[in-house]
């Protein structure tokens, strides 16, 4: 930790957002520096919880840089504790009213330059339009697959409006969080992530239904909700990485926890509803007969299987009668 008082001026007073981003930076060439809401201060705070003359930044007898309270009602808060005066280092964050600030000397060391991995080309109108197009196409596809009537133009328009509206609402919420915690909204990128997530969900639903029907493997559809939960968690992960790209490991752990929690809740709901872990008791997907690749079982084979089940059932019934 570098001591801001160990160097001569100039100094820089930084006003910070809640996530630590610098909102405003003011150069200070001479001390003392008076801080408060009044216009006769050297640093004027637009904060109703700051006093007219709240604090002063100065050097103490030992030459340290000190922030001293001037008798305000709310005082100076550092690390959750109220202080009358506090010696500042370059990393000390002090709160005056609702304003967080720190002071750094001109020679304060900064970390090395980060590699630019923000994918600037993956922002703006183009990815946003692609995301809306994906959402619209999937809404129309879902409406077409579920259409059983003629003259359904109005229903297609409604499905299109619902799909695009849901994508805009979802992406808009993430863009608002991005603006709040990451300075920029990046609505286009969030729309693209949303569209890709919807495409992955629809793609798996179609692929799972086709493979399950073709090979008589009902596990593809009986446990499809867990795959959907995993895909939603992955979509949330990319949204979070867009907002705070440096915390990727924390985002992975959070999304993995959300996926496990979601799958656990689905299993509990399935057991309460049907007494089984599966989402459905039978595969509900019906496709043209030409899609089937597994061997069909005839009536004779089915009856032989039924007859083979009779002996164990009779034995179990006899044991129940004896009990």
Structure commentary:
The mean pLDDT is 84. By secondary structure, the chain is α+β, with helices and mostly antiparallel strands. It is elongated, with a radius of gyration of 32 Å. The protein has helices at residues 125-145, 153-182, 187-215, 219-222, 224-243, 248-274, 299-322; strands at 11-16, 22-28, 33-36, 43-44, 55-59, 65-69, 76-78, 81-83, 85-87, 94-96, 99-105. The chain contains seven helices and eleven strands. A hairpin with a 2-residue loop joins β10 (94-96) and β11. Strands 2-1-11-10-7-8 form a six-stranded antiparallel sheet, with no helix packed on it. A five-stranded mixed sheet has the order 4-3-5-6-9, with no helix packed on it.
In brief:
With 323 residues, the chain is of the alpha+beta class. The chain is 48% helix and 15% strand.
Described by the principal axes of the CA atoms, the overall outline is elongated
Main pleated-sheet profile = 6 strands, antiparallel
Strand order of the largest sheet: 2-1-11-10-7-8
State the helical fraction.
40-55%
Q: What fraction strand?
A: 5-15%
Residue windows where pLDDT falls under 50 for at least 5 positions? none
Give helix and strand order, one letter per element, not per position: EEEEEEEEEEEHHHHHHH
Structural class: alpha+beta
Q: How many individual β-strands?
A: 11
Radius of gyration over all CA atoms, rounded: 32 Å
Whole-number mean pLDDT: 84
Which helices and strands, and how do they pair?
Blueprint: E1 11-16, E2 22-28, E3 33-36, E4 43-44, E5 55-59, E6 65-69, E7 76-78, E8 81-83, E9 85-87, E10 94-96, E11 99-105, H1 125-145, H2 153-182, H3 187-215, H4 219-222, H5 224-243, H6 248-274, H7 299-322
Parallel strand pairs: 3-4
Antiparallel strand pairs: 1-2, 1-11, 3-5, 5-6, 6-9, 7-8, 7-10, 10-11
Helix pairs in contact: 1-2, 1-3, 2-3, 2-5, 3-5, 5-6
């Amino acid at each position: 930790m570098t001591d801001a008082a160990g160097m001569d001026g100039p100094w820089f007073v930084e006003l910070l957002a809640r996530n630590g981003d610098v909102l405003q930076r003011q150069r200070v060439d001479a001390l003392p520096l008076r801080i408060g809401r009044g216009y006769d201060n050297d640093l004027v705070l637009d904060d109703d919880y700051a006093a007219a003359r709240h604090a002063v930044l100065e050097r103490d007898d030992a030459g340290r840089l000190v922030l001293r309270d001037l008798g305000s009602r709310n005082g100076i808060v550092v690390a959750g504790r109220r202080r009358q005066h506090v010696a500042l280092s370059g990393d000390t964050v002090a709160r005056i009213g609702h304003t967080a600030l720190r002071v750094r000397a001109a020679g304060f060391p900064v970390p090395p330059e980060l590699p630019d991995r923000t994918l600037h080309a993956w922002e703006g109108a183009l990815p946003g339009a692609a995301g809306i197009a994906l959402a619209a196409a999937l809404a129309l596809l879902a409406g077409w697959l579920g259409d059983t009537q003629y003259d359904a133009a109005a229903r297609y328009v409604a499905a299109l409006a619902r799909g695009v509206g849901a994508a805009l609402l979802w992406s808009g919420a993430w863009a608002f969080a991005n603006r709040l915690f990451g300075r920029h909204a990046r609505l286009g990128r969030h729309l693209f992530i949303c569209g890709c997530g919807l495409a992955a969900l629809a793609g798996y639903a179609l692929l799972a239904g086709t493979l399950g029907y073709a090979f008589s493997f009902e596990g593809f559809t009986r446990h499809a909700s867990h795959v959907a939960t995993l895909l939603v968690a992955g979509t949330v992960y990319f949204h979070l990485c867009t907002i705070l790209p440096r915390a990727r490991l924390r985002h992975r752990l959070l999304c993995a926890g959300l996926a496990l929690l979601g799958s656990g809740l689905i299993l509990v709901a399935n057991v309460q509803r049907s007494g089984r872990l599966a989402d459905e008791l039978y595969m509900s997907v019906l496709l043209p007969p030409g899609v089937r690749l597994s061997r069909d079982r005839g009536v004779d084979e089915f009856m032989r299987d039924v007859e083979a089940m009779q002996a164990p059932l009779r034995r179990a019934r006899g044991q129940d009668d004896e009990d």
